[in-house]
Amino acid sequence: MTLQVTRRQFFKLGATGLATSSMAMMGFAPEPAVASVRHFKLTGAKITRSNCTYCSVGCGVLLYSRGDAAINVVDDIYHVEGDPDHPVSRGSLCPKGAGLLDYVKSDSRLRYPQVREAGSNEWKRIGWDEALDRIARHMKDDRDANFEADDDDGNIVNRWTTTGMLAASASTNETAYLTQKVVRSLGMVAFDNQARV
Ligand code: SF4
């Protein structure tokens, strides 16, 4: 049950040294005061819609970032919350999704394509164009070398078993459908989704 106090009483309580957030959790916070602080925190933020990357539920999230929009300035994401307009989750997030800000800020998060050349033990940063070209080249070469049109008994199989694909769990239905079509049309057999990992 929420304890009703006036604004003046609220600030008197604050003078005792209790943190405002702790007081709010205890039910002492007048709702208008808390709403005002929240509004201030998000004022001027750029809001970007996205999906939680953790699992196949694909909950919708709102990413709040701040930057001056100048060239070469990267917006800094400082708040993440559920998207109330998302048809899957309608604003709710599980604890993993609610902690997405730690994921965004993690030093170990992969932020750009990297390659480890054959024989090397070091990862090297490359651009997206180079990464896509290299992937396409490897796929073409491997498929040309290993594609099987029929098996030993003469049955038509049209299969490519030496390369696999792992799809993203946060894909939309449309992206997942197209990924499946592309992969199967190449004859690829080993195809799975990160949602099961
Ligand atoms: S918020 Fe939780 S349930 Fe939703 S996609 Fe992320 S991990 Fe899955």
From TrEMBL:
<keyword id="KW-0408">Iron</keyword>
<dbReference type="Pfam" id="PF00384">
    <property type="entry name" value="Molybdopterin"/>
</dbReference>
<dbReference type="Pfam" id="PF04879">
    <property type="entry name" value="Molybdop_Fe4S4"/>
</dbReference>
<keyword id="KW-0479">Metal-binding</keyword>
<protein>
    <submittedName>
        <fullName>Molybdopterin-dependent oxidoreductase</fullName>
    </submittedName>
</protein>
<dbReference type="InterPro" id="IPR027467">
    <property type="entry name" value="MopterinOxRdtase_cofactor_BS"/>
</dbReference>
<feature type="domain" description="4Fe-4S Mo/W bis-MGD-type">
    <location>
        <begin position="45"/>
        <end position="108"/>
    </location>
</feature>
<dbReference type="InterPro" id="IPR006656">
    <property type="entry name" value="Mopterin_OxRdtase"/>
</dbReference>
<dbReference type="InterPro" id="IPR006963">
    <property type="entry name" value="Mopterin_OxRdtase_4Fe-4S_dom"/>
</dbReference>
<comment type="similarity">
    <text>Belongs to the prokaryotic molybdopterin-containing oxidoreductase family.</text>
</comment>
<keyword id="KW-0560">Oxidoreductase</keyword>
<dbReference type="InterPro" id="IPR006311">
    <property type="entry name" value="TAT_signal"/>
</dbReference>
<keyword id="KW-0411">Iron-sulfur</keyword>
<keyword id="KW-0004">4Fe-4S</keyword>
<keyword id="KW-0500">Molybdenum</keyword>
